[in-house]
Amino acid sequence: MSANEDQEMELEALRSIYEGDESFRELSPVSFQYRIGENGDPKAFLIEISWTETYPQTPPIISMNAFFNNNISSAVKQSILAKLQEAVAANLGTAMTYTLFEYAKDNKDQFMENHNPINSTTTISNIISIETPNTAPSSKKKDKKEQLSKAQKRKLADKTDHKGELPRGWNWVDVVKVFKQNWL
């Protein structure tokens, strides 16, 4: 079988296996994401697998660069990717996307044993609280409104109706005048 036929068969299998699974997401016919762990689980992570043109004879591209994984340290990510690459080497030449997702699900606790969640909310709140005193004095200044003279106000009032809107057709071109100039 050719690589494209293998990919088509695996794509059909993945669609049927993960139909209705909220953790699985097909980004494109050759790129997939799977969330390992439940929503709200601090040890949950997201794996993205993208097939190359010659997949499964060549290894897929495995990534953990999704925004979902921002609370995981880079050392833990590298550890997970290294273990997944070992599984790729063992399954090279066969359809392995399902196998990799299941391997990650089965070994989630082992993968995340050294995981200490990076608490980004405290660092953001610290940054905000540090910057707040600096921005407070500038907020005291109020922008001055443009001052109009009585004549300018009167002219503006004459152009608009009682609601402050310009009358319908105020910027229309005199069609008859234009046609006279162009056709005569």
UniProtKB/TrEMBL annotation:
Database matches in PROSITE patterns: RWD
InterPro entries: RWD_dom, RWDD4, UBQ-conjugating_enzyme/RWD
Parts of the chain that traverse the membrane: none
Region (Disordered): 132-163
Pfam family name, one: RWD
Domain RWD: 9-111
Family matches, as PANTHER family: RWD DOMAIN-CONTAINING PROTEIN 4
Protein name (record): RWD domain containing 4
Species this protein is from: Cebus imitator
